[in-house]
Amino acid sequence: MKIKTLTAALACALPMTGAFAAALDRSGQSISSFLQPGNYFEVGGSVLAPDVSGKENSGNKISDMAQSYAFASAAIKIQATDNFSVGLLFDQPFGAKAAYSGDNIFVSKPTNNVLGALPVTTAQLAGAAGSTAPTGNTEVSVETHNLALIFGFQPNENFNFYAGPVYQEVKGDVSLRGSAYSLYNGYDAHIKNTDGWGWLAGIAYQIPEIALKASLTYRSEIDHDVNIEERTPLVDDLTTAAGNGALAQLMQSLGSNPNIAPLLPSIQAAIGGAIAANGASSKETRITTPQSVNLDLQSGIMADTVAFVNIRWVNWEDFALRPYKFGAISEQVGGLLNPSRPNGFNLVQYSKDQWSVTTGVGRKFNDKWAGNASVGWDSGAGNPVTTLGPTEGYWNVGLGLQYSPAPNYFVAGGVKYFWLGDAKAQTGAQAGSDQYVAEFADNDAVAYGLKLGYRF
C-alpha cells in the first residue's frame, strides 16, 4: 500500500477548504502540492455561490447580500535531488465580495439622518452645500494573491523540512451606504494594489509503506503600508461654508429643545474635529494579513483507503482595518456614541481566532478512478461580526471524484455544501459591544472545484 498510489485517492480534495471560512479566509493555504512525490504540477479553480439574507433590528428583510466569487491556485514542485526540492505555489488566500440591495439600512436614501441625534437629512445637508446626497448600496470587494517560493530538505525518505519567502498582493474597495453608518453614509475607500513580504516554514513526516503522512506549516503575518484613497461626502458637505452654516443655524434652532440642547456642545466639537480630520493630509495605513498554522494528517486504514484530517488556525483576533481618515474622524465623533468610543473605532475587526477542521476518507477504486468524502467545521471569528461579512463559521459536507487517464496525470472535480452559521451584524462603531444592527440566519452556500494534476 504505497503512498504514491494512495496519494491519488486524495488528489481530488480540491482547494475549497476555506471557501466560506471565517472572516476573510478563502483558500485554506494548503501545502499538499509541495509534498507530492517526484516532480509535480497542478492548476485548480473553485467557485462559491453563497446565499446570505437576514433582517434589520426593525424587522425589515435584507435579501441575499453575498456575491458569488471564484478563486484559483497553481503549483509546481521540482525534486532536484534525492535530498532537495523546490516549489512555487500560487493561491488567493483572503478575500471578500458582498453587496446589499433593496430597501434597508445598508442602502442610501435622501431621508437618512446625518447624525442620529440631529433631525437633518443627507438631502437637506447636500442641498445646503450644493452637492448631491449619497446614493447606492453598501459593497465590499477584497482580493489577495500569494506567491510562495519553498525550499525543502529531505534527509531521508521520512522527513521533509521546508521554508521560504512569501510575496503577497492586496487590493480592495469598500463603500458604506445607508443609515446604519450615520456620518459615514457615502464613505468610499479604495485600497490600491499593494504588496508585502512574509515567510512560511514547516516539517513533514511520512511512512510510505502505510500511507502515513503528517505536516505542520506556519505562515507569518504580512504587513502592507498603503495610502488608501478615502472619501467621506457628508463631512465634505459640512466643510463647505454653506453646509457648515446650515448646520449652525439648525443647532441654534434646536437650542430650545430640552432633549437635544445638552448634546449640542459635544456635537459641535465633534463635528469641528471631524471637519479638521477630513481636511488633513492623508497618511499611510498599515494592513496586516494574519499569521496561520495548518496541520495535515493522513493514514492508510485499509487497502487502497486513507483517512485524512486538516486542522487550521488563523489569528483573526488581532486583525483590524482602520483607514487613516476613517480613523481620524472616528476619534472625533466616537465620544458621541453609546457606548462611548473616545479613541475611535475600526472599519473592520474580529473578536476571535478562527479554527477549522476538515476530515474524511479517500479511496482508490481502480487504476483510473478515485474519490473522497469529507465533513468540515469552522468556528467563525466571533459574533457579533462585521456587516461586510455577516456569518459565523459553518458546517459542510463534500464529495470529490478523480479520473486518471494515465498514471502521470489526472482531472479531479468536487462539490461542497455549506450550512453557514447564524450571526448578528454590527458596524465598526459597534464592534466590541453587544450592539448590532441586523441578524442573518438560515443561510447556505455551494462550492464547486476543478483541478488538473501532472507528474513528470
Automatic annotation (TrEMBL):
Name of the protein in question: Long-chain fatty acid transport protein
GO molecular function annotation: long-chain fatty acid transporting porin activity
Annotated signal peptide: 1-21
Positions in coiled-coil regions: none
Keywords associated with the record: Cell outer membrane, Membrane, Signal, Transmembrane, Transmembrane beta strand
Family, per entry: Belongs to the OmpP1/FadL family.
Organism from which the protein derives: Acinetobacter puyangensis
GO CC terms, sorted: cell outer membrane
Claim: Metal-binding is one of the keywords in the record: no
Cellular localisation: Cell outer membrane
Gene3D superfamilies: Outer membrane protein transport protein (OMPP1/FadL/TodX)
Taxonomic lineage of the native organism: Bacteria, Pseudomonadati, Pseudomonadota, Gammaproteobacteria, Moraxellales
Membrane topology designation: Multi-pass membrane protein
